[in-house]
Each structure stands twice: as structure tokens, then as C-alpha cells.
């Protein structure tokens, strides 16, 4: 890899980092707008046109609020907790392929931070570290409610990561790789009509696995109806009860970044990633009918694929917010029962079913 290519990849990493922060920032605005729409009321409309500057006003508020350390709290760990949660959230987006490669002359740039052949394992490892940020923050606050919220978060993550991992195994049985880029390429199709393109996506081969993964994604991101770690009616504010200023902002931002990342992962694993119907036919049409070079036509397809992937991601983010304002919160015993007695047995059944279908050649 040349220094020029390394420079371009460094720029891609910075863009992914910036996009993650920007999307997390405006997810707070989208949450308020969707909540207002669902509840038939006016949302944010004071800061800027249509309230578009509201996230900036919130950021200024977070930065300028008074720093607060509870009595008896461990100051170093109290600060380290939200930093760890934010860092692991940002690290998890590094291996997601947001598009195919673009070529400028002899330089090829992949729209992905880093490509490793164990990308999915990397995401699981980093996400597993994120719960330590919650645990450390809850324990260091020297508050019983915060500690209870942190313990809930840890037990919830352990319970639902098992079912999520088992759901992923069925996808790996079909794809034979842990590389997210390879999984995306395997869902591409040069079939002459649209339905064959969509039938090649893993959602058609793994509908049960996708449902399990989706439910576990809600639990992993602590979103309603699985937001027990920060249950206001029982725990005041949960693990971040004692937090204020930008330390609270880091916890809130990390949650939205996790929503963005898990939406991207589901789009890549089950909905074809940056692939879209008729992409190869459209590329050949651009090259033949419009007289474009094949490299230029492929670059256009890459850009359109990246736009399509972000459309899928935003659709999932909307779904996360829609569910929040639609479904009530589970009780904690219901949450644990769902994870251990329903999702894990279903995920094991899905693995056995997938193995049988592969053995008999029904799916490939």
C-alpha cells in the first residue's frame, strides 16, 4: 500500500468518524421531531429554521453546564466511564463497508476505515467493551440507583449478546466469512431483474435470524422497550443519574452512535449493504449509452451504493425511534425471560435449520 493510498484511507477514517458524530448529533433532533409527530404536537422549532439548530444549542448547553462530582465518587473512574463508552462506540464503525471502492487513476480507495477478515468479530469485541463504560460510570457515581442501572446493563448485555451471536452464526454458515465486505459482495447479483437481486440478500435466507438479531439490537443499545438500565420510573435516570455537562452528553451520544452502527451492521448483514437492484445493468448502460469509461461508471455506482446504504441505515434508525414512542417498557423479569428462554432457543433452532437447508442444497 502506497503512502498516497494510506493518506486517502486516513481521510476515509476521518470522514467516517465525523459522519458518526454528525449523525449522532442530529439523531437527537430526529428523536424529538418523530416524538412530536407520534404525539401530535409541535416539536423543536425555535433554534434555527424548523429547529435544525437545536442540536447545536444542546451541544452548547452541554459544554457550558457546571461540572459536578458526587460526594464519595471516584473522580478518575467517574470521568473515564463516559469516555470509554464514547470511544468504543466510535471504534465499532471502523470496519463497516459504506461503499465499494472508487478509483482515481492508479489509486483505489475503499469506502471503509479498515478491512480485516474478522470484521464482525471485531465489532462484537468492541461492543462488549462498551458495557464497561456503563459499569464503571454507575459504580464510580457512589449512587445506589446508578449502580443498579449499571448491573442491569451488564446482565442485559450478557444475555442478549448470546442470542445475537447465535443469530450471526447462521449468517456465517451461509457466507463462510467474518469479513463484512465479503458478506456484502456475496449478496450482490447480476441477475436481469430486480427480484432476483433482492432474493440474494440474506434477509430472504435468514428471516428468523434477522428478527432475533433485531430484537437483540434493541437490548444491546438500551432502547425501549429494553431501556431498563436507565428506567426513569424506577431508577431516576439509571447509570447516568449523577452525570451532568459533557460527560452526560458522551453517554447520550454514544447511545445514538451505537444505534447508527447496529443499523449499519444489520443493513450489511441482511439487506445487501451497498448493493442495490440493477446496479450492474446501470453501470453497463452508463458505459455503453453515455460513453463513460468503465472506471467512471463504476465510481458512480459506488456513490449510489453508498447513498443506498445510508438510506437503509436511516430507515432502521427511524424504526428504533418509532418503536420507542409506540411500545411500553418491559419488566426486568420479562426482559431476562425473553432473552434466555425464547431468543436463545430460537437462535439454536435457526442454526440447526440453516445447517439442514445447506446440507440439502436448498440455500447456498
From TrEMBL:
Claim: NAD is one of the keywords in the record = yes
The role this protein plays is: NDH-1 shuttles electrons from NADH, via FMN and iron-sulfur (Fe-S) centers, to quinones in the respiratory chain. The immediate electron acceptor for the enzyme in this species is believed to be ubiquinone. Couples the redox reaction to proton translocation (for every two electrons transferred, four hydrogen ions are translocated across the cytoplasmic membrane), and thus conserves the redox energy in a proton gradient. This subunit may bind ubiquinone.
Return the InterPro entries for the record. NADH_UbQ_OxRdtase_su1/FPO (IPR001694), NADH_UbQ_OxRdtase_su1_CS (IPR018086)
What protein am I looking at? Answer: NADH-quinone oxidoreductase subunit H
Reactions catalysed, as given in the entry:
a quinone + NADH + 5 H(+)(in) = a quinol + NAD(+) + 4 H(+)(out)
Q: Which keywords has UniProt assigned to this entry?
A: Cell membrane, Membrane, NAD, Quinone, Translocase, Transmembrane, Transmembrane helix, Ubiquinone
Q: Which GO terms describe its cellular component?
A: plasma membrane
Assembly notes:
NDH-1 is composed of 14 different subunits. Subunits NuoA, H, J, K, L, M, N constitute the membrane sector of the complex.
Q: What is its EC number?
A: 7.1.1.-
Would I find Plastid among this entry's keywords?
no
Q: Which Pfam families match?
A: NADHdh
Compartments where located: Cell membrane; Membrane
Write one Gene Ontology MF term: oxidoreductase activity, acting on NAD(P)H, quinone or similar compound as acceptor
Give the protein family. Answer: Belongs to the complex I subunit 1 family.
Q: Which GO terms describe its biological process?
A: aerobic respiration
Q: What class of enzyme is it?
A: translocase
Q: Provide the membrane topology annotation.
A: Multi-pass membrane protein
Query: What is the organism of origin for this protein?
Result: Hymenobacter nivis
Primary residence? membrane
**Which parts of the chain span the membrane according to its record?**
6-29, 77-99, 119-140, 160-178, 198-219, 256-280, 300-323, 335-363
